[in-house]
Design brief:
single chain; 435 residues; alpha/beta; Rossmann fold; Dihydrodipicolinate Reductase, domain 2; Alpha-Beta Plaits; 3 domains; 10-stranded mixed β-sheet; 6-stranded parallel β-sheet; 25% strand; elongated; binds L-homoserine
């Protein structure tokens, strides 16, 4: 039986899951592949550290060259994360004729062009299922399961940390800060959660989804990205009273004018399928022309869930090696560079929350400003205990173009009556436009 040798870069959480699955499922993998898959070396920073998986110490090395320079290694599995040295290692691996499996969304979203170009030039594959929505086989579903269809839109909950925090705020009434602390204590949020709660992680994943679904490469920095740090218990409570839950959504949609990509908190009707995605789970709702809606749901992070995606990629690469073929997830032809549409003409209903003095004329002043900018009010709520200052004033708008609501918010922000308090704003999921 043929042996295919793996070199693994990194033995953290996902690295340990990968090693455990390759070991525990060895017999099944061998019978599927008619080949043995053997981990030959694992790059670690510290050989003495205690790990989540038992590994023969002779496999561990602190020298990347023991893997990248080993001609016996066929596949390099990059699980160290971050941009450098991951980028350099992957380029070296491809240059040395090795296929690559990675779960590194930031690297591929920002430097995918050079990595995929080098892979294509060398006839090698770069697989990256673990980089988007952890264990959910969304990349494989988009490129294989829906290869016969035309994908029109994807609406995803692709950051488990943000979903965990918003879900905890919804269930317990906690503040954002307390829910974040809880998420960190439970191991769902990083010590520095900026990339997750700021929406950057979801934007990286959205860029990869757009690449696979639409063949368009975008700079993730050009995706309109809003995090969840400004969401208050009042927002969550008012949304709930009106039948909505707050979710951080990553949305990609083809339009006649171009590709609309955005990451932001969104009010989702409680009856919508994405409203039921709880805790750190992820889900992608895909709209394709012939199939219609299809939903992909599961664990978006963690040692074994992401390990499943990584090992499935390893199996696919090994299958290609054994068959002498190559079928890279990102083809070397047909990819175009793209710029996401500005949101100016996006039409959505909006939730606004202003804090104003409890005195006559406040609603009139705000309503007049909205009216001046062409924003029509659908509903207004003020539950103000007598004598309390300032009081929250919640306004729902009718569907309106982004540039109009943005202009109104800009003007209202200058109102002295707000006393510098920020204006809360959450877009409402458009069921007509979004799957
Ligand atoms: N930090 C990510 C999340 C998981 O919270 O979803 C890895 O992509």
């Amino acid at each position: 039986m043929r042996t295919i040798a793996i070199g693994q870069l990194g033995l953290g959480n996902v690295g340990a899951g990968t090693v455990a699955l390759l070991r525990d499922n060895r017999a099944a993998i061998e019978s599927r592949l008619h080949a043995k898959v053997v981990v030959r070396k694992i790059l670690v920073r510290d050989r003495e550290r205690t790990r989540d998986v038992t590994v023969n110490p002779s496999l561990l090395t602190t020298r990347a060259d023991d893997i990248l320079g080993d001609p016996e290694i066929d596949v390099v599995v990059e699980l160290i994360g971050g941009i450098e040295p991951a980028r350099t290692y992957i380029l070296q691996a491809l240059t040395a004729g090795k296929h690559v499996v990675t779960a590194n969304k930031a690297l591929l979203a920002e430097h995918g062009a050079e990595i995929f170009a080098l892979a294509a030039a060398r006839g090698l594959s770069v697989y990256f299922e673990g980089s988007v929505a952890g264990g959910i086989p969304i990349i494989r579903s988009l490129r294989e399961g829906l290869a016969s269809d035309r994908i029109e839109a994807i609406t995803g909950i692709v950051n488990g940390t943000s979903n965990y925090i918003l879900d905890a705020m919804t269930r317990t009434g906690a503040t954002y800060a307390d829910a974040l602390k809880d998420a960190q204590a439970a191991g769902f949020a990083e010590a520095d959660p900026t990339l997750d709660v700021g929406g950057g992680d979801a934007a990286h994943k959205l860029a990869l989804l757009a690449l696979v679904s639409f063949g368009v490469r975008v700079d993730p920095a050009e995706i309109v990205t809003e995090g969840i740090t400004g969401i208050s218990p009042l927002d969550i409570e008012t949304a709930a009273e009106l039948g909505y839950v707050v979710k951080s959504l990553a949305i990609a949609r083809r339009t006649e004018a171009g590709l609309c990509l955005r990451v932001h908190p969104t009010l989702v009707p409680r009856t919508h399928v994405l409203a039921g995605v709880e805790g750190s789970y992820n889900a992608c709702l895909v709209q394709s022309r012939a199939l219609g809606r299809s939903l992909y749901y599961g664990r978006g992070a963690g040692m074994l869930p992401t390990g499943v995606a990584v090992v499935s990629d390893i199996i696919e690469v090994c299958r290609n090696i054994a068959a002498g073929t190559s079928s890279p997830p990102v083809p070397d032809a047909g990819i175009v560079e793209g710029t996401p549409l500005p949101l100016d003409n996006l039409v959505s209903e909006n939730y606004l929350c202003l804090h104003v003095p409890n005195q006559p004329g406040m609603l009139g002043k705000c309503a007049a400003c909205l009216g001046k900018h062409g924003v029509s009010i659908k509903r207004m709520i003020q539950n103000a205990p007598l004598g309390r200052h300032p009081v929250p004033m919640v306004i729902f708008t009718e569907p309106v173009e982004e540039h109009k609501i943005a202009a109104a918010i800009r003007e209202m922000t200058t109102f002295e009556i707000l006393g510098g308090m920020p204006i809360g704003r959450i877009r409402v999921l458009d069921l007509g436009d979004t799957p």
